[in-house]
């Protein structure tokens, strides 16, 4: 225990505490300043009344500081909840992109099957009538349809590649934005909490 002689409103007191002497002196100066401020505004007040009012003012500061800290901690917890919601949304977007890609894969496979059947049919038609104009027209028509189907496959493959690339970009952007936003929010809240605690620590009755 440390002991230091201090003055509050001109009266000496022996103040004991576990904190160092410099801190105890600062506490005494803070209380002394509060009492003197009250007495300077109302010179008719007794020392006891001034000390009582100073205690009430300091208690008021304590309650307000505690409320502020509690609100900041609650806000930080809310940000943690937002982080969870944000992560869930990222998963949903990823699942949606994966679903679209999967559907495109199925469409491509179906088109490939159709083309394969059409080629087989074309070959059969060619065998039935080698130089027949009628079958020749059918064969050419089938060939055109096959070409269209092949173009459709190319488009779907290109679309799939674009979706996959877009999916990667979305995931990267969302992830990057999430951490930037949460980092800034947490830094702001930590700074506010630190400031509130610092204000609290400077007050005699806020310990």
Automatic annotation (TrEMBL):
What are the BP-aspect GO terms? division septum assembly; FtsZ-dependent cytokinesis; septin ring assembly
Q: According to the UniProt entry, where is the signal peptide?
A: none
Where the protein is mainly located, per its record?
Answer: cytoplasm
Q: What does this protein do?
A: Activator of cell division through the inhibition of FtsZ GTPase activity, therefore promoting FtsZ assembly into bundles of protofilaments necessary for the formation of the division Z ring. It is recruited early at mid-cell but it is not essential for cell division.
Q: Which organism is it from?
A: Clostridium chauvoei JF4335
Q: Where in the cell is it found?
A: Cytoplasm
Q: Which Gene3D superfamilies match?
A: 6.10.250.790
Q: Which UniProt keywords apply?
A: Cell cycle, Cell division, Coiled coil, Cytoplasm, Septation
Q: Does the record carry Cell division as a key word? A: yes
Checking SUPFAM superfamilies in the record gives:
Cell division protein ZapA-like
Protein name as annotated: Cell division protein ZapA
Give the record's subunit note.
Homodimer. Interacts with FtsZ.
Q: Which GO terms describe its cellular component?
A: cell division site; cell septum; cytosol
The coiled-coil regions, if any, are 90-152
């Amino acid at each position: 225990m440390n002991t230091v002689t201090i003055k509050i409103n001109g009266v000496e007191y022996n103040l004991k505490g576990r904190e160092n002497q410099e801190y105890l002196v600062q506490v005494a100066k803070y209380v002394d300043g509060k009492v003197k401020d009250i007495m300077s505004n109302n010179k008719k007040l007794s020392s006891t009344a001034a000390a009582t009012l100073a205690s009430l003012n300091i208690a008021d500061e304590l309650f307000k500081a505690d409320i502020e800290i509690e609100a900041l901690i609650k806000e930080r917890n809310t940000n943690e909840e937002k982080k969870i919601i944000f992560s869930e949304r990222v998963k949903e977007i990823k699942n949606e992109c994966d679903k679209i890609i999967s559907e495109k894969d199925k469409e491509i496979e179906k088109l490939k099957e159709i083309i394969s059947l059409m080629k087989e049919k074309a070959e059969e038609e060619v065998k039935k009538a080698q130089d027949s104009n009628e079958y020749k027209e059918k064969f050419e028509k089938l060939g055109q349809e096959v070409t269209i189907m092949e173009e459709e496959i190319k488009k779907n493959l290109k679309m799939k590649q674009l979706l996959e690339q877009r999916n990667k970009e979305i995931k990267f952007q969302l992830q990057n934005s999430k951490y930037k936003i949460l980092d800034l929010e947490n830094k702001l809240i930590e700074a506010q909490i630190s400031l509130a605690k610092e204000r609290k620590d400077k007050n005699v009755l806020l310990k």
